[in-house]
Amino acid sequence: xxxNLHDLPDSPCIGVxxxxxxxxxxxxxxxxxxxxxxxxxxxxxxxxIWKRIEAEGTAMRFRNDRL
Length: 67
Fold this sequence. Notes:
- The protein has helices at 32-37, 43-56.
- The chain is mainly alpha-helical and 67 residues long.
- It has one domain.
- The mean pLDDT is 87.
């Protein structure tokens, strides 16, 4: 399987974290567990998360009306 992971930013984070108050961050679309463990995840685990948050498209990262 070819990977575009290295073409992506290091993290989905856009600096608008809401994981203290929300199950899913409104900024990047990841769970609090995904955010806190991001640096420890394998490339495949990160790729799966990127695919999910892109498919959902609800996080500020993917909305045209953000900031």
